Amino acid sequence: MEKIAVITSGGDAPGMNACIRAIVMTADQNDLEVIGFGHGYRGIVEDLNQPLRPNDMRLVSQRGGTILLSSRFPEFKQDKIAKQAATVLDQHGVGALIVIGGDGSFRGASHLARFWQGQIIGIPGTIDNDLAGTDTTIGFATAVDTAMEAIDRIRETAEAMARVFLIEVMGRHAGFIGLHAAIAGSAEAMLVPELEPQPKLADLADNIRRARKAYPDSSYIIVVSENLWPGGIDELSRALGQATGVTCHAAPLGHIQRGGRPNAQDRILSMQLGQSAVHAILDGSRTVMIGIEQGHVVQVPLHLTFQRDKPLDQRLVDLQLGLQQINFASNDARESA
Amino acid sequence: MEKIAVITSGGDAPGMNACIRAIVMTADQNDLEVIGFGHGYRGIVEDLNQPLRPNDMRLVSQRGGTILLSSRFPEFKQDKIAKQAATVLDQHGVGALIVIGGDGSFRGASHLARFWQGQIIGIPGTIDNDLAGTDTTIGFATAVDTAMEAIDRIRETAEAMARVFLIEVMGRHAGFIGLHAAIAGSAEAMLVPELEPQPKLADLADNIRRARKAYPDSSYIIVVSENLWPGGIDELSRALGQATGVTCHAAPLGHIQRGGRPNAQDRILSMQLGQSAVHAILDGSRTVMIGIEQGHVVQVPLHLTFQRDKPLDQRLVDLQLGLQQINFASNDARESA
Amino acid sequence: MEKIAVITSGGDAPGMNACIRAIVMTADQNDLEVIGFGHGYRGIVEDLNQPLRPNDMRLVSQRGGTILLSSRFPEFKQDKIAKQAATVLDQHGVGALIVIGGDGSFRGASHLARFWQGQIIGIPGTIDNDLAGTDTTIGFATAVDTAMEAIDRIRETAEAMARVFLIEVMGRHAGFIGLHAAIAGSAEAMLVPELEPQPKLADLADNIRRARKAYPDSSYIIVVSENLWPGGIDELSRALGQATGVTCHAAPLGHIQRGGRPNAQDRILSMQLGQSAVHAILDGSRTVMIGIEQGHVVQVPLHLTFQRDKPLDQRLVDLQLGLQQINFASNDARESA
Amino acid sequence: MEKIAVITSGGDAPGMNACIRAIVMTADQNDLEVIGFGHGYRGIVEDLNQPLRPNDMRLVSQRGGTILLSSRFPEFKQDKIAKQAATVLDQHGVGALIVIGGDGSFRGASHLARFWQGQIIGIPGTIDNDLAGTDTTIGFATAVDTAMEAIDRIRETAEAMARVFLIEVMGRHAGFIGLHAAIAGSAEAMLVPELEPQPKLADLADNIRRARKAYPDSSYIIVVSENLWPGGIDELSRALGQATGVTCHAAPLGHIQRGGRPNAQDRILSMQLGQSAVHAILDGSRTVMIGIEQGHVVQVPLHLTFQRDKPLDQRLVDLQLGLQQINFASNDARESA
């Protein structure tokens, strides 16, 4: 086996470029050649290839996005399209394909494995961290930092004006970004999909009302996961405003969470996974994801990464639920003192 | 005259704290005492005062928001409320009041001047930069940097996925943030209120379509001022998507533009204005705004700051309109070459 | 037990304030009162106390440094000084003391335990990460991010001018910051105290020479731990310059690594440890450090944290040693192709 | 005239890439072709050319450094080397050369003009801002922001530990970065070359001593320009430490000031100058620098930019000298109150 191909697929995530660098450097030391296909699976099918060499990698780790470009490519589910990809890979003499992406990308990889004999290695790259088999994914830590910095900014103006803000963060259908951003941003409340039971509107409103009464000059921030509340945070803000009599401002963070320079944690993770992926190829692994669990690099069968749900870390859920609890009795006591 | 009072009023802006520091330091060197009232005009009326001393100022310039807190207080338009404020100021022996804020705050200051004999000095503090009589306002430069950094992040993911984004920036009814952010973010198009004539939907759509055809793998970013397009960027994104057949993503930046550490430009401006305001008080000025024009500190009668519109710098408008123009002919030529 | 005291001691670290917040919030929910003593152990002895209340905590997590201030206080090793501290704590009715700091602070805590009957809980707060019994310490992740961002900046100018840079990072006598910053910064070489054997000057010089020959237009960055090379990086730069004939620029990062807003990882860690410390007090623990190992909060006898050396994660050492290895043979092959 | 060449020369500065983008976009709209030579003047002599096209420019404005690379090339002073450059330019059919750089680069440009008939246009690109004929230069505003952020970080740890810091900033032989960073960082003292008379060691020491006495728990920061104090800030720190009995910490910021993403101000300036340079070429200008004075783009004969010294803005000097003055009398009064 002499040639490795790499794609980034699905939503881009900060750290993908650092991962590509590690793949290229590690391959080079083992005398393997690396080519990249642009735009994910589509790029394989359309043969949009380029050589990836060590000297091109010196300034890429620092950058967000992906130098290989990415795309969503639902057509890849069709057998004939996947077969075309297999043909292109064979024509290039590619012996192993590394796919950096999320669950959709890994479904695609599993599909491709039916038609292609090469080794396929997945690397978890998604800001949402919603892949089983790995504690964290490329881009997640940076997305949390970005969301936190945005919350910090909003906190300053919210505090200056004593305002209530609902801040919507990404995560697709998982609450990882929401939970971590809520803790890091010292949020007064948090709405993420995994909470059981979900907080009721009446309880949220009650908490806001009591907090405003106890601390009238203070800000109040609720972190809300996307795709959770029907009508989104605009609707939730209206409902809470009506229930409390307090204007509730909606701040959706949106796509800024996807970009930006990867932080150190994401770069280190990315390079660790990239290096390990090449080692796994040399060791003969196939159709696995390279993940990280409790500091150890692990290999997980690809299909297990998207067939199971990954739970939030309950200790962190308890941390936030604990910290966000306002002791109104204590405040009353102090007030009356 | 021995005592100066300071308030921050209306929307907070990064740099207000640096301005307060300069006021306090300069007053102290001239043996003037400074007190602050919290929450803007409301704080005067409710006598929410606190002493402001040099040694408390060492860590404030770095912070966004306002340590004095702010508020919108429409009740201040009533004569009897303004008279109450005058009474409180007199009770404290305040000889001069410095108001850091925007046009609403300066209207309030003009109103107060009818009932209070002390000196009133305005300092332009608003991220929107929509005050006549000064080239720039406290917070504007930082807001532009914040918007630009957000555009940079979105650019990375937009480029990775070859997407079209509409990014909505603040500015109330003025296009200053929009114009500067569009240039700094290398936007492909810009919609700000001052453009004459306003770009038509059909022309925008046509440009997007041609750009996608010429550069199918590229991002395309339109910076749009708030309060401009009926229905906002959500509606505009839908309309453009329909007209072009290309998905157009909407990204409203919202309140993150208001917070954050002031950049150097804003801190220097803020301190210059704060120091000059105290000097103006010592020189006997009253009912003026301290502004900056072409590097020089100027004094402008307060009412002139909100009765006139401030135009955009036409040279910068021309800069952006020039840079954003794609030479499709040149592309066609290269393509056919 | 009704009252908890908190100090921050030794070098400050980003995240200490988030930790204080978590302590205060958690204590309040459990109807415990919290006081802080300023300037570490010195503040106990001099009784520089202040109440710490939930409502004061809303804007502190975001800030670097420590709101309680810190100091080095070698006098605390004297028995009579420690006894004075015990007396002050007793006078305030303090039942438990939380010390956020590094190994010197924990030695102080162990010393105090000889003279004071209250519970003493340590929380690891140091950017150097050189405490056994915990995978990481408050401030470490942020310091790595800061060092990495500095390296990124230097990389840009180094690349523009094709220069060799030696960048000195903190860490006292441990290589944690050096190792993590080298990986995150894609350094071409790394000098940290734990490497066995230490790279020789001749080998370093040889690598630089060969890299310059293979890639004459490229930057080359060596990350060097402080307190490692006799004469520091100035001396090492001179020596390498002489050995290679290439100018080697020295860039000591210095104290910027200690300040700055804590990143999300540090805030979450800090709050987790702070909350756990209060729970540990309620559970009756004494003279332990609250640490984190593989995601789990653990308690470690205080004296074990500073009597053992903590090794680097060998997997990360291997990662960097692998990635930094330039395959000159591969380059030669390409050149001759 | 159909072809423009561009080089970046001397020390790189954030914003150079945005300037290159503006040149390429503007040229393209006017049907001019642009080529870049790598590594400054050396790249012309060695004919290291590359085409620069609009579609390559979409992701460059955001980046520090220079995509064209730069170098110092003293050999260019030789007539025969300059003649070689002229020959290469003629061989490519270049009609105009744009040089982005500082005074050394403009001396080179003047030299080249003796041997080459094409139009030569200079654009001021240096973080030091030490070019006459323009109020500011590409990279200066970003360097000030970078220095300020470093001072902010050091301020936090200095405050936590009540320390005195001397922070050395860049500027070559000019105090622009020093002055602006001192104001923006709220420095307690400033040493820049233009001060007349220079502060004496005894006075600095006296101020530190008095400040420590009046505010023993506070930080004290002195911003010092490079190349000013014999022996640098290490020597000055030792001398001040000896004179005051207080440890004075030295923090040289070094090359981090040169890198980093350009801020909005620098990007806008860069694009304005780049666009104007192409317009100047179309208008037939030759051997001028495109500068900016009070918001207006101006043209200045090249040799005037490096033959005169540019003074600091005296108003900003007065601002800092005013703000940094501690009113000890006021403190004594309060103390005794």
UniProtKB/TrEMBL annotation, chains A, B, C, D:
Molecular function as annotated in GO: 6-phosphofructokinase activity; AMP binding; ATP binding; fructose-6-phosphate binding; identical protein binding; metal ion binding; monosaccharide binding
Record's keyword annotation contains Hydrolase: no
Essential cofactor(s): Mg(2+)
UniProt keywords, alphabetically: ATP-binding, Cytoplasm, Glycolysis, Kinase, Magnesium, Metal-binding, Nucleotide-binding, Transferase
Main localisation: cytoplasm
Lineage: superkingdom: Bacteria
Pathway assigned in UniProt: Carbohydrate degradation; glycolysis; D-glyceraldehyde 3-phosphate and glycerone phosphate from D-glucose: step 3/4
Keyword ATP-binding set for record: yes
UniProt GO BP: canonical glycolysis; fructose 1,6-bisphosphate metabolic process; fructose 6-phosphate metabolic process
Gene Ontology CC entries for this record: 6-phosphofructokinase complex
EC number(s) stated in the UniProt entry for this protein: 2.7.1.11
Protein localization: Cytoplasm
Residue intervals of the Phosphofructokinase domain: 3-281
Catalytic reaction annotation: beta-D-fructose 6-phosphate + ATP = beta-D-fructose 1,6-bisphosphate + ADP + H(+)
Gene3D superfamilies reported in the protein's UniProt record: 3.40.50.450, Phosphofructokinase domain
Protein family membership: Belongs to the phosphofructokinase type A (PFKA) family.
Protein name as catalogued: 6-phosphofructokinase
Source organism phylogeny: Bacteria, Pseudomonadati, Pseudomonadota, Gammaproteobacteria, Alteromonadales
